[in-house]
What we know:
Elements: H1 2-10, E1 15-24, E2 30-38, E3 41-46, H2 75-89, H3 97-111, E4 116-119, E5 141-144, H4 149-167, H5 171-179, E6 188-195, E7 208-212, H6 219-241, H7 261-275, E8 282-286, E9 293-294, E10 297-299, E11 312-313, H8 315-328, E12 331-335, H9 343-352, E13 356-359, H10 367-376, E14 381-384, H11 386-389, H12 392-404, E15 408-412, H13 422-430, E16 434-438, H14 443-452, H15 464-468
Parallel strand pairs: 6-16, 8-12, 12-13, 13-14, 14-15, 15-16
Antiparallel strand pairs: 1-2, 2-3, 4-5, 6-7, 7-8, 9-10, 10-11
Bound molecules: 2-phosphoglyceric acid (2PG) and magnesium ion.
Amino acid sequence: MLMSNHMKKSVPSMITKVKARQILDSRGIPTVEVDLYTNKGMFRASAPSGASSGMYEAIELRDGDKGTYLGNGVSRAVRNVNEKISEALIGMDPTLQSQIDQAMIDLDRTEKKESQLVFTRPLLHFSNLFLPLRESAFWEFFFQGELGANAILAVSMAACKAGAAEKEVPLYKHIAVLSGNTNLSLPIPAFTLLSGGKYAGNFLPVKQIMILPIGARQFEEALQMGSETYHHLKAVISKKYGTDGCSVGEDGGFAPSITSIREGLDLVKEAIGRTGYSEKLKIAIDVDATEFCIGTKYDLDFKSPNNSGQNFKSGEDMINIYKDLCADYPIVSIEDPFDKEDWEHAKHFSNLGICQVVGDDLLMSNTKRIERAVQESACNALLLKVNQIGTVTEAIEIVKLAKDAHWGVVISQRSGETEDAFIADLCVGLAVSQIKAGAPCRGERLAKYNQVHTLPHNSQLLRIEEDLGDQAVYVGDDWRLS
Ligand code: 2PG
Ligand code: MG
Protein backbone atom coordinates (compact mmCIF):
# COMPACT_ATOMS: atom_id res chain seq x y z
CA MET A 1 0.00 0.00 0.00
CA LEU A 2 2.74 2.39 1.03
CA MET A 3 4.62 1.40 -2.04
CA SER A 4 1.73 2.06 -4.35
CA ASN A 5 1.11 5.53 -2.83
CA HIS A 6 4.74 6.33 -3.30
CA MET A 7 4.58 5.14 -6.86
CA LYS A 8 1.46 7.19 -7.51
CA LYS A 9 3.28 10.36 -6.40
CA SER A 10 6.18 9.67 -8.64
CA VAL A 11 3.99 9.50 -11.76
CA PRO A 12 4.67 12.80 -13.53
CA SER A 13 1.66 15.01 -13.55
CA MET A 14 0.31 15.57 -17.04
CA ILE A 15 -2.69 16.27 -19.20
CA THR A 16 -3.82 12.98 -20.66
CA LYS A 17 -6.91 13.98 -22.65
CA VAL A 18 -8.89 17.08 -23.59
CA LYS A 19 -12.45 16.60 -24.73
CA ALA A 20 -14.92 19.34 -25.66
CA ARG A 21 -18.62 19.28 -26.36
CA GLN A 22 -21.33 21.76 -27.20
CA ILE A 23 -23.70 22.67 -24.35
CA LEU A 24 -26.29 25.44 -24.00
CA ASP A 25 -25.73 28.58 -21.95
CA SER A 26 -28.30 30.36 -19.77
CA ARG A 27 -29.85 31.97 -22.85
CA GLY A 28 -30.24 28.61 -24.57
CA ILE A 29 -27.42 29.42 -26.98
CA PRO A 30 -24.58 26.95 -27.65
CA THR A 31 -21.27 27.30 -25.89
CA VAL A 32 -18.17 25.17 -25.35
CA GLU A 33 -17.67 22.84 -22.40
CA VAL A 34 -14.33 21.12 -21.88
CA ASP A 35 -13.38 18.03 -19.87
CA LEU A 36 -9.66 18.01 -19.25
CA TYR A 37 -8.14 14.82 -17.86
CA THR A 38 -4.96 14.39 -15.84
CA ASN A 39 -3.62 11.60 -13.68
CA LYS A 40 -5.74 13.15 -10.91
CA GLY A 41 -9.10 12.96 -12.66
CA MET A 42 -11.38 14.99 -14.91
CA PHE A 43 -11.75 18.79 -14.69
CA ARG A 44 -14.62 20.61 -16.38
CA ALA A 45 -15.05 24.22 -17.46
CA SER A 46 -17.31 26.10 -19.84
CA ALA A 47 -17.09 29.41 -21.65
CA PRO A 48 -19.59 32.21 -21.05
CA SER A 49 -20.78 34.42 -23.87
CA GLY A 50 -22.00 37.99 -23.97
CA ALA A 51 -23.99 40.43 -26.01
CA SER A 52 -21.32 43.04 -26.42
CA SER A 53 -18.50 42.13 -28.71
CA GLY A 54 -16.25 44.05 -30.96
CA MET A 55 -13.02 44.31 -32.79
CA TYR A 56 -10.84 44.62 -29.70
CA GLU A 57 -11.75 41.46 -27.88
CA ALA A 58 -10.92 37.80 -28.27
CA ILE A 59 -13.69 36.49 -30.45
CA GLU A 60 -15.66 33.33 -29.98
CA LEU A 61 -15.92 31.01 -32.94
CA ARG A 62 -19.45 30.21 -34.13
CA ASP A 63 -20.46 28.00 -37.01
CA GLY A 64 -22.51 30.62 -38.83
CA ASP A 65 -24.80 28.02 -40.38
CA LYS A 66 -28.18 29.76 -40.02
CA GLY A 67 -30.02 26.46 -40.31
CA THR A 68 -28.55 25.16 -37.04
CA TYR A 69 -29.01 27.05 -33.79
CA LEU A 70 -29.56 30.14 -35.97
CA GLY A 71 -25.89 30.20 -36.80
CA ASN A 72 -24.77 30.00 -33.17
CA GLY A 73 -23.50 26.42 -33.10
CA VAL A 74 -19.95 25.95 -31.81
CA SER A 75 -19.06 22.66 -33.45
CA ARG A 76 -15.98 24.14 -35.11
CA ALA A 77 -14.68 25.42 -31.77
CA VAL A 78 -15.39 22.00 -30.24
CA ARG A 79 -13.48 20.34 -33.05
CA ASN A 80 -10.58 22.71 -32.53
CA VAL A 81 -10.33 21.58 -28.91
CA ASN A 82 -10.71 17.90 -29.71
CA GLU A 83 -8.15 17.95 -32.47
CA LYS A 84 -5.67 20.84 -32.46
CA ILE A 85 -5.66 21.98 -28.82
CA SER A 86 -5.80 18.47 -27.43
CA GLU A 87 -2.83 17.43 -29.52
CA ALA A 88 -0.83 20.44 -28.36
CA LEU A 89 -1.59 20.00 -24.65
CA ILE A 90 -1.43 16.28 -24.04
CA GLY A 91 1.64 15.55 -21.95
CA MET A 92 1.86 19.06 -20.46
CA ASP A 93 2.01 19.64 -16.71
CA PRO A 94 -1.40 21.08 -15.61
CA THR A 95 0.24 23.27 -12.97
CA LEU A 96 2.09 25.27 -15.62
CA GLN A 97 -0.78 27.56 -16.53
CA SER A 98 1.17 30.17 -18.46
CA GLN A 99 2.83 27.51 -20.63
CA ILE A 100 -0.50 25.89 -21.37
CA ASP A 101 -2.06 29.24 -22.28
CA GLN A 102 0.96 30.21 -24.36
CA ALA A 103 0.78 26.91 -26.24
CA MET A 104 -2.79 27.72 -27.25
CA ILE A 105 -1.97 31.32 -28.15
CA ASP A 106 0.94 30.09 -30.28
CA LEU A 107 -1.23 27.49 -31.92
CA ASP A 108 -3.81 30.12 -32.78
CA ARG A 109 -1.15 32.41 -34.17
CA THR A 110 0.68 29.80 -36.18
CA GLU A 111 -2.57 29.04 -37.88
CA LYS A 112 -3.57 32.66 -38.39
CA LYS A 113 -1.78 35.53 -36.75
CA GLU A 114 -4.65 37.99 -36.63
CA SER A 115 -8.37 37.64 -36.25
CA GLN A 116 -10.12 37.09 -39.50
CA LEU A 117 -12.82 39.47 -40.73
CA VAL A 118 -15.80 37.45 -41.89
CA PHE A 119 -18.75 38.93 -43.77
CA THR A 120 -21.98 37.03 -43.32
CA ARG A 121 -24.27 39.46 -45.12
CA PRO A 122 -23.61 42.42 -47.37
CA LEU A 123 -24.43 45.96 -46.34
CA LEU A 124 -28.11 46.31 -47.00
CA HIS A 125 -29.16 49.88 -47.09
CA PHE A 126 -27.79 53.37 -46.74
CA SER A 127 -30.27 54.01 -43.92
CA ASN A 128 -28.20 51.66 -41.76
CA LEU A 129 -25.78 54.51 -41.44
CA PHE A 130 -28.20 56.16 -39.04
CA LEU A 131 -28.67 53.18 -36.78
CA PRO A 132 -26.44 52.56 -33.80
CA LEU A 133 -23.50 50.70 -35.25
CA ARG A 134 -24.16 47.38 -33.57
CA GLU A 135 -27.74 47.41 -34.88
CA SER A 136 -26.69 47.99 -38.38
CA ALA A 137 -26.18 45.56 -41.18
CA PHE A 138 -22.62 46.82 -41.09
CA TRP A 139 -22.23 44.42 -38.24
CA GLU A 140 -23.26 41.48 -40.28
CA PHE A 141 -19.61 40.74 -40.22
CA PHE A 142 -17.57 39.72 -37.29
CA PHE A 143 -14.01 39.18 -36.31
CA GLN A 144 -13.16 35.60 -35.84
CA GLY A 145 -10.14 33.96 -34.27
CA GLU A 146 -8.84 30.73 -35.67
CA LEU A 147 -9.35 28.43 -32.69
CA GLY A 148 -12.07 30.52 -31.03
CA ALA A 149 -11.85 32.33 -27.69
CA ASN A 150 -14.67 30.05 -26.51
CA ALA A 151 -12.46 27.01 -27.19
CA ILE A 152 -9.30 28.48 -25.69
CA LEU A 153 -10.89 29.93 -22.55
CA ALA A 154 -12.77 26.76 -21.62
CA VAL A 155 -9.53 24.77 -21.88
CA SER A 156 -7.57 27.41 -19.98
CA MET A 157 -10.04 27.35 -17.07
CA ALA A 158 -10.27 23.55 -17.03
CA ALA A 159 -6.45 23.37 -16.95
CA CYS A 160 -6.40 25.81 -14.05
CA LYS A 161 -8.79 23.59 -12.10
CA ALA A 162 -6.58 20.60 -12.93
CA GLY A 163 -3.52 22.51 -11.73
CA ALA A 164 -5.21 23.26 -8.41
CA ALA A 165 -6.13 19.61 -7.96
CA GLU A 166 -2.61 18.57 -8.80
CA LYS A 167 -1.30 20.81 -6.04
CA GLU A 168 -4.14 19.68 -3.80
CA VAL A 169 -5.20 23.24 -3.03
CA PRO A 170 -8.50 25.04 -3.66
CA LEU A 171 -8.74 26.76 -7.04
CA TYR A 172 -8.58 30.28 -5.58
CA LYS A 173 -5.34 29.47 -3.79
CA HIS A 174 -3.81 28.08 -6.97
CA ILE A 175 -4.80 31.28 -8.79
CA ALA A 176 -3.29 33.39 -6.00
CA VAL A 177 0.00 31.54 -6.38
CA LEU A 178 -0.07 31.81 -10.17
CA SER A 179 -0.50 35.56 -9.88
CA GLY A 180 1.95 36.06 -7.04
CA ASN A 181 -0.83 37.44 -4.87
CA THR A 182 -0.53 36.88 -1.16
CA ASN A 183 -3.57 38.86 0.01
CA LEU A 184 -6.79 36.95 -0.31
CA SER A 185 -10.02 38.88 0.03
CA LEU A 186 -13.68 38.24 -0.67
CA PRO A 187 -15.14 40.71 -3.15
CA ILE A 188 -18.15 42.97 -2.89
CA PRO A 189 -20.95 41.45 -4.93
CA ALA A 190 -22.68 43.77 -7.40
CA PHE A 191 -26.20 42.31 -7.46
CA THR A 192 -28.40 43.20 -10.39
CA LEU A 193 -31.83 44.27 -9.13
CA LEU A 194 -33.29 45.84 -12.25
CA SER A 195 -32.57 44.90 -15.82
CA GLY A 196 -32.99 47.21 -18.77
CA GLY A 197 -31.16 48.13 -21.95
CA LYS A 198 -30.66 45.20 -24.25
CA TYR A 199 -31.26 42.82 -21.36
CA ALA A 200 -34.96 43.39 -20.98
CA GLY A 201 -38.15 44.21 -22.85
CA ASN A 202 -38.99 47.31 -20.79
CA PHE A 203 -38.06 50.89 -21.71
CA LEU A 204 -35.39 51.38 -19.06
CA PRO A 205 -32.45 52.64 -21.12
CA VAL A 206 -29.64 51.51 -18.80
CA LYS A 207 -28.62 47.86 -18.70
CA GLN A 208 -28.50 47.20 -14.97
CA ILE A 209 -29.25 48.89 -11.69
CA MET A 210 -27.27 47.04 -9.03
CA ILE A 211 -26.66 47.18 -5.29
CA LEU A 212 -23.31 46.87 -3.54
CA PRO A 213 -23.49 45.69 0.10
CA ILE A 214 -20.42 47.60 1.15
CA GLY A 215 -21.51 47.69 4.79
CA ALA A 216 -21.69 43.91 5.22
CA ARG A 217 -19.11 42.32 7.51
CA GLN A 218 -18.79 39.09 5.57
CA PHE A 219 -19.64 37.83 2.15
CA GLU A 220 -22.31 35.66 3.68
CA GLU A 221 -24.02 38.72 5.12
CA ALA A 222 -23.67 40.52 1.78
CA LEU A 223 -25.47 37.67 0.09
CA GLN A 224 -28.25 37.82 2.67
CA MET A 225 -28.62 41.57 2.11
CA GLY A 226 -28.76 41.03 -1.64
CA SER A 227 -31.37 38.33 -1.40
CA GLU A 228 -33.57 40.22 1.04
CA THR A 229 -33.45 43.44 -0.98
CA TYR A 230 -34.26 41.51 -4.15
CA HIS A 231 -37.35 40.04 -2.52
CA HIS A 232 -38.42 43.37 -1.04
CA LEU A 233 -38.08 44.83 -4.51
CA LYS A 234 -40.26 42.07 -5.90
CA ALA A 235 -43.00 43.08 -3.44
CA VAL A 236 -42.60 46.78 -4.29
CA ILE A 237 -42.83 46.05 -8.02
CA SER A 238 -45.78 43.67 -7.63
CA LYS A 239 -47.72 46.33 -5.81
CA LYS A 240 -47.02 49.05 -8.36
CA TYR A 241 -46.91 47.17 -11.64
CA GLY A 242 -48.66 43.87 -10.91
CA THR A 243 -47.01 40.48 -10.79
CA ASP A 244 -46.19 40.60 -14.50
CA GLY A 245 -43.79 43.42 -13.60
CA CYS A 246 -41.71 40.78 -11.83
CA SER A 247 -40.52 39.00 -14.94
CA VAL A 248 -36.76 39.08 -15.17
CA GLY A 249 -34.07 40.04 -17.66
CA GLU A 250 -31.13 37.96 -18.81
CA ASP A 251 -29.13 38.16 -15.63
CA GLY A 252 -32.08 37.82 -13.29
CA GLY A 253 -32.87 41.47 -12.53
CA PHE A 254 -36.54 42.46 -12.52
CA ALA A 255 -37.78 44.15 -15.65
CA PRO A 256 -41.01 46.05 -14.85
CA SER A 257 -42.30 48.41 -17.50
CA ILE A 258 -40.44 51.48 -16.34
CA THR A 259 -39.22 54.14 -18.71
CA SER A 260 -36.64 56.18 -16.87
CA ILE A 261 -33.53 55.70 -14.76
CA ARG A 262 -35.11 57.67 -11.91
CA GLU A 263 -38.19 55.47 -11.92
CA GLY A 264 -35.90 52.47 -11.53
CA LEU A 265 -33.78 54.10 -8.85
CA ASP A 266 -36.89 55.05 -6.87
CA LEU A 267 -38.02 51.43 -6.85
CA VAL A 268 -34.62 50.26 -5.67
CA LYS A 269 -34.49 52.99 -3.04
CA GLU A 270 -37.88 51.94 -1.72
CA ALA A 271 -36.77 48.30 -1.55
CA ILE A 272 -33.55 49.27 0.24
CA GLY A 273 -35.64 51.34 2.67
CA ARG A 274 -37.61 48.21 3.62
CA THR A 275 -34.50 46.21 4.50
CA GLY A 276 -33.16 48.20 7.41
CA TYR A 277 -29.74 48.19 5.73
CA SER A 278 -30.06 51.64 4.16
CA GLU A 279 -26.61 52.78 5.20
CA LYS A 280 -24.95 49.55 4.18
CA LEU A 281 -26.18 49.30 0.60
CA LYS A 282 -24.97 51.50 -2.23
CA ILE A 283 -26.11 51.62 -5.84
CA ALA A 284 -24.21 50.95 -9.06
CA ILE A 285 -25.44 51.41 -12.64
CA ASP A 286 -24.25 49.84 -15.87
CA VAL A 287 -25.40 52.45 -18.37
CA ASP A 288 -24.02 50.57 -21.39
CA ALA A 289 -24.26 53.85 -23.27
CA THR A 290 -22.77 52.46 -26.47
CA GLU A 291 -26.15 50.84 -27.06
CA PHE A 292 -27.92 54.17 -27.40
CA CYS A 293 -25.26 56.42 -28.79
CA ILE A 294 -26.18 57.78 -32.19
CA GLY A 295 -23.41 59.80 -33.73
CA THR A 296 -22.40 62.13 -30.91
CA LYS A 297 -25.76 62.01 -29.12
CA TYR A 298 -27.33 59.69 -26.60
CA ASP A 299 -30.91 58.59 -27.16
CA LEU A 300 -32.42 57.81 -23.78
CA ASP A 301 -35.69 56.82 -25.49
CA PHE A 302 -34.03 54.33 -27.79
CA LYS A 303 -36.29 51.50 -26.72
CA SER A 304 -39.55 53.38 -26.90
CA PRO A 305 -41.79 52.55 -29.86
CA ASN A 306 -43.11 56.13 -29.77
CA ASN A 307 -39.66 57.65 -29.79
CA SER A 308 -40.17 61.30 -30.68
CA GLY A 309 -36.47 61.89 -31.13
CA GLN A 310 -36.75 64.69 -28.55
CA ASN A 311 -34.79 62.99 -25.82
CA PHE A 312 -31.36 63.05 -27.46
CA LYS A 313 -28.65 64.13 -25.04
CA SER A 314 -25.19 65.45 -25.64
CA GLY A 315 -22.19 64.09 -23.75
CA GLU A 316 -22.31 67.21 -21.57
CA ASP A 317 -26.00 66.62 -20.84
CA MET A 318 -25.18 63.05 -19.81
CA ILE A 319 -22.50 64.31 -17.42
CA ASN A 320 -25.06 66.59 -15.81
CA ILE A 321 -27.58 63.77 -15.59
CA TYR A 322 -25.02 61.58 -13.81
CA LYS A 323 -24.06 64.38 -11.44
CA ASP A 324 -27.70 64.86 -10.45
CA LEU A 325 -28.31 61.14 -10.08
CA CYS A 326 -25.26 60.75 -7.84
CA ALA A 327 -26.47 63.67 -5.72
CA ASP A 328 -29.99 62.28 -5.34
CA TYR A 329 -29.29 58.56 -4.86
CA PRO A 330 -26.54 56.58 -3.11
CA ILE A 331 -24.81 55.81 -6.41
CA VAL A 332 -21.14 54.95 -6.01
CA SER A 333 -20.31 53.38 -9.36
CA ILE A 334 -21.25 53.99 -13.00
CA GLU A 335 -20.18 51.60 -15.76
CA ASP A 336 -19.85 52.69 -19.38
CA PRO A 337 -21.42 56.12 -18.94
CA PHE A 338 -20.54 56.99 -22.55
CA ASP A 339 -20.08 55.34 -25.89
CA LYS A 340 -17.02 53.12 -26.16
CA GLU A 341 -15.31 55.64 -28.43
CA ASP A 342 -16.37 58.75 -26.51
CA TRP A 343 -13.06 59.10 -24.66
CA GLU A 344 -13.43 62.84 -24.16
CA HIS A 345 -16.57 62.70 -22.06
CA ALA A 346 -15.33 59.62 -20.24
CA LYS A 347 -12.19 61.54 -19.23
CA HIS A 348 -14.12 64.60 -18.23
CA PHE A 349 -16.59 62.64 -16.12
CA SER A 350 -13.97 60.41 -14.55
CA ASN A 351 -11.89 63.40 -13.55
CA LEU A 352 -14.80 64.85 -11.61
CA GLY A 353 -14.16 62.06 -9.09
CA ILE A 354 -17.84 61.73 -8.24
CA CYS A 355 -17.93 57.96 -8.28
CA GLN A 356 -16.16 54.85 -9.50
CA VAL A 357 -16.21 54.93 -13.32
CA VAL A 358 -16.03 51.40 -14.71
CA GLY A 359 -14.78 50.66 -18.20
CA ASP A 360 -16.51 47.71 -19.80
CA ASP A 361 -17.12 48.38 -23.51
CA LEU A 362 -14.67 51.26 -23.20
CA LEU A 363 -11.88 48.77 -22.40
CA MET A 364 -13.17 45.45 -23.74
CA SER A 365 -10.64 43.78 -21.41
CA ASN A 366 -8.07 44.80 -24.01
CA THR A 367 -4.54 45.62 -22.86
CA LYS A 368 -3.99 48.49 -25.28
CA ARG A 369 -7.27 50.14 -24.41
CA ILE A 370 -6.59 49.72 -20.69
CA GLU A 371 -3.16 51.33 -21.12
CA ARG A 372 -4.72 54.23 -22.98
CA ALA A 373 -7.45 54.64 -20.35
CA VAL A 374 -4.86 54.65 -17.58
CA GLN A 375 -2.81 57.27 -19.39
CA GLU A 376 -5.81 59.47 -20.13
CA SER A 377 -7.68 58.77 -16.86
CA ALA A 378 -10.75 57.82 -18.86
CA CYS A 379 -12.06 55.61 -16.06
CA ASN A 380 -10.86 54.29 -12.73
CA ALA A 381 -11.99 50.68 -12.70
CA LEU A 382 -11.62 47.70 -15.02
CA LEU A 383 -14.50 45.41 -15.81
CA LEU A 384 -12.90 42.11 -16.70
CA LYS A 385 -14.79 39.59 -18.78
CA VAL A 386 -12.57 36.53 -18.99
CA ASN A 387 -13.82 35.46 -22.38
CA GLN A 388 -12.88 38.84 -23.83
CA ILE A 389 -9.26 38.35 -22.90
CA GLY A 390 -9.23 34.64 -23.63
CA THR A 391 -6.95 32.86 -21.15
CA VAL A 392 -6.44 32.75 -17.39
CA THR A 393 -2.85 33.97 -17.74
CA GLU A 394 -3.88 37.04 -19.74
CA ALA A 395 -6.67 37.74 -17.25
CA ILE A 396 -4.12 37.71 -14.43
CA GLU A 397 -1.92 40.11 -16.39
CA ILE A 398 -4.58 42.70 -17.08
CA VAL A 399 -5.79 42.65 -13.51
CA LYS A 400 -2.21 43.49 -12.53
CA LEU A 401 -2.24 46.34 -15.02
CA ALA A 402 -5.38 47.77 -13.46
CA LYS A 403 -4.10 47.30 -9.92
CA ASP A 404 -0.83 49.02 -10.76
CA ALA A 405 -2.90 52.02 -11.85
CA HIS A 406 -4.71 51.88 -8.47
CA TRP A 407 -7.96 51.16 -10.23
CA GLY A 408 -10.86 49.15 -8.90
CA VAL A 409 -11.41 45.79 -10.57
CA VAL A 410 -14.76 44.15 -11.24
CA ILE A 411 -14.69 40.60 -12.52
CA SER A 412 -17.88 40.10 -14.45
CA GLN A 413 -20.37 37.56 -15.66
CA ARG A 414 -21.60 37.55 -19.25
CA SER A 415 -25.25 37.67 -20.21
CA GLY A 416 -24.89 34.10 -21.45
CA GLU A 417 -23.61 32.17 -18.46
CA THR A 418 -23.12 28.57 -17.42
CA GLU A 419 -23.06 27.00 -13.99
CA ASP A 420 -19.26 27.23 -13.99
CA ALA A 421 -18.22 29.24 -10.92
CA PHE A 422 -14.64 29.87 -12.07
CA ILE A 423 -14.86 33.67 -11.77
CA ALA A 424 -15.62 33.37 -8.06
CA ASP A 425 -12.27 31.74 -7.41
CA LEU A 426 -10.61 34.14 -9.81
CA CYS A 427 -11.91 37.12 -7.81
CA VAL A 428 -10.66 35.76 -4.50
CA GLY A 429 -7.35 34.49 -5.86
CA LEU A 430 -6.58 37.85 -7.46
CA ALA A 431 -8.09 39.75 -4.51
CA VAL A 432 -10.16 41.98 -6.75
CA SER A 433 -12.65 44.17 -4.97
CA GLN A 434 -15.85 43.43 -6.86
CA ILE A 435 -17.67 40.52 -8.48
CA LYS A 436 -20.56 41.21 -10.83
CA ALA A 437 -22.49 38.02 -11.40
CA GLY A 438 -26.08 39.22 -11.86
CA ALA A 439 -29.07 39.00 -9.55
CA PRO A 440 -29.08 37.01 -6.32
CA CYS A 441 -31.39 34.69 -8.21
CA ARG A 442 -31.09 32.07 -11.02
CA GLY A 443 -28.73 29.14 -10.90
CA GLU A 444 -26.02 30.28 -13.27
CA ARG A 445 -25.67 33.57 -11.33
CA LEU A 446 -25.86 31.99 -7.87
CA ALA A 447 -23.25 29.42 -8.87
CA LYS A 448 -20.69 32.23 -8.57
CA TYR A 449 -22.01 33.92 -5.44
CA ASN A 450 -22.52 30.61 -3.64
CA GLN A 451 -18.96 29.62 -4.42
CA VAL A 452 -17.65 32.67 -2.57
CA HIS A 453 -20.16 32.23 0.22
CA THR A 454 -20.24 29.83 3.12
CA LEU A 455 -22.84 27.14 2.68
CA PRO A 456 -22.30 25.02 5.78
CA HIS A 457 -23.20 21.35 5.55
CA ASN A 458 -24.33 21.77 2.02
CA SER A 459 -21.42 20.42 0.15
CA GLN A 460 -18.60 18.03 0.63
CA LEU A 461 -16.35 20.60 -0.96
CA LEU A 462 -15.70 23.68 1.08
CA ARG A 463 -16.86 27.01 -0.28
CA ILE A 464 -14.25 29.75 -0.23
CA GLU A 465 -15.39 31.72 2.82
CA GLU A 466 -15.81 28.49 4.73
CA ASP A 467 -12.39 27.26 3.67
CA LEU A 468 -10.70 30.49 4.75
CA GLY A 469 -12.47 30.47 8.10
CA ASP A 470 -11.11 33.19 10.42
CA GLN A 471 -8.82 34.42 7.70
CA ALA A 472 -11.68 35.35 5.39
CA VAL A 473 -11.54 39.09 4.78
CA TYR A 474 -14.58 40.67 3.13
CA VAL A 475 -13.61 43.75 1.15
CA GLY A 476 -16.43 45.86 2.64
CA ASP A 477 -15.58 49.54 3.01
CA ASP A 478 -12.32 49.07 1.13
CA TRP A 479 -14.17 48.05 -2.02
CA ARG A 480 -12.63 50.75 -4.19
CA LEU A 481 -9.13 49.34 -3.77
CA SER A 482 -8.41 46.20 -5.69
C1 2PG B 1 -22.03 43.82 -19.10
C2 2PG B 1 -22.13 42.33 -19.42
C3 2PG B 1 -22.44 41.52 -18.22
P1 2PG B 1 -22.75 41.20 -21.72
O1 2PG B 1 -22.36 44.66 -19.91
O2 2PG B 1 -21.55 44.20 -18.05
O3 2PG B 1 -23.56 41.91 -17.51
O4 2PG B 1 -23.05 42.11 -20.44
O5 2PG B 1 -22.24 39.91 -21.23
O6 2PG B 1 -24.07 41.05 -22.39
O7 2PG B 1 -21.77 41.92 -22.59
MG1 MG C 1 -21.34 46.39 -18.98
